[in-house]
Amino acid sequence: MTVVEAPPPLPIRDKTTRDRVDGGLSPMLTRLAAEQATGVLVREGGSLHLAGGLVLHAESRFAPGLGTLLTAHGALTAEEWWTAVGEAGDLAGTARLLLAGGHLTRAAVQICHLQTLYDAAYFALAPSSSPGRFHYGAVHVDTGEDAGSPLPAVPVADVEREVVRRRTLLHGLWPDALTDSEPLVRTHPIAAPALTPRQTAVLALVDGVRTAPDIAIAQGGRAFPTLVEVRRLAAAGLLAMPPAPPPPAAQPPGPPMGVPVAPPDDFDPHIALLKRVRDALEAL
Amino acid sequence: MPGIDECLLEAMRLPGARGAALVDWTSGLALGVVGEFPGGDHEAAAAEVAELARLAAEQPAFAPEGTADTGPADADPAIEDVIVSNRDGYHLLRFVPAPFDSGAVLHLWLGRPDGNLALARMRLGEMAGRLVLG
């Protein structure tokens, strides 16, 4: 008999913080939204383009953008995309050209834009070690044809709440946020669970060098579903982060010739499992 | 060419339609919402729709025969729709086929007295097909 383990329920946005997410993401973003600032907020993980309290667009080097998503599986050829980018110069103009050329439906552009916006915002608003910077007025706002702008903008508060909700979702699957950004290696659990096709494809790209965002880019897919699958695979014991190398100063000289090198201590699947349990408990 | 909202408004013209939404089934984010939702909360409804859709999409038992193990990861889900009925209504979930990683599913809530499940299923299928593929 196969026991189907239902994944934990998807979290629902907390109603008590519906109006404002305080102290969580970026106090600067909260302030900029309150003053309806227009410009670009640049943080370590990415940037948000703001205008009048709305997020027009978000980008992050960790999240595949509109062009990657549309060209990876043949919705557009790379040539069609880059021709439109070259003619229009900005994202809204590019989308307008592609719509006018009949390459895509309006809904396809909207879905793709919203998905990439929230994906990039997740990384842009991730905890960072350096403060963000805001460039006032650096956004090109399309005033001439505003009603016809094909890309939907999202209120800042909605983006903040969704980022918090996604963090909660990922935390519920596997509470180690480093799986979002660190290189991943495969591990070999004693009783591996059955995999979904998406998980098989993610696991096939795990090579000890690629991080979760690298896998999403290699697949030409969205970043967030890959983060979800990586956390689920980590929870199932099928992948992990490689052990951190010791600091170079503390590294002992190489073993003398002829002395066998001991395998790393998480070579044993039992020890690897215990380490994962320890890491998970510490992360709680 | 129609956008998300136009498609949802079209779905709302079906007899008995109470609410329609376009939901990302991996995160539970509502990409578009029109009408009312059970319990009056479209965000909670979207998260629950996403859970059901994901469960259906990932169980090999529901995949067409011979594709359960071989389906490429970037392909659309092998299933077309999920139907849930209860005493006073129907819920239709229709996966949106797309030539990119869209993760989108259409959700339509129909009242039982006026709803025509067969008609709604057929029309929702057509709308989902047109939404991205044109």
Describe this structure in words.
The complex is a heterodimer of chains A (284) and B (134). In chain A, the strands form two sheets. Chain A has a five-stranded antiparallel beta sheet with strand order 4-1-2-3-5. A two-stranded antiparallel ribbon of chain A has the order 6-7. The radius of gyration of chain A is 22 Å and the shape is globular. About 4% of the residues of chain A have low confidence. Chain A folds into two domains: 157 residues, no CATH class; 90 residues, no CATH class. With 284 residues, chain A is α+β, with helices and mostly antiparallel strands. Chain A contains ten helices and seven strands. In chain A, helix 3 packs across helix 4 and helix 8 packs across helix 9. With 134 residues, chain B is α+β, with helices and mostly antiparallel strands. Chain B has a single domain, classed as Dynein light chain 2a, cytoplasmic (Beta-Lactamase), CATH 3.30.450. Chain B is 32% helix and 25% strand. Chain B contains three helices and five strands, in the order αββαβββα. Chain B has a five-stranded antiparallel beta sheet with strand order 2-1-5-4-3, with helices on both faces. In chain B, helix 1 runs antiparallel to helix 3. Chain B is globular and about 40 Å long. In chain B, 47% of the residues are buried. The mean pLDDT of chain B is 89. Classes of the chains: A alpha+beta (284), B alpha+beta (134).
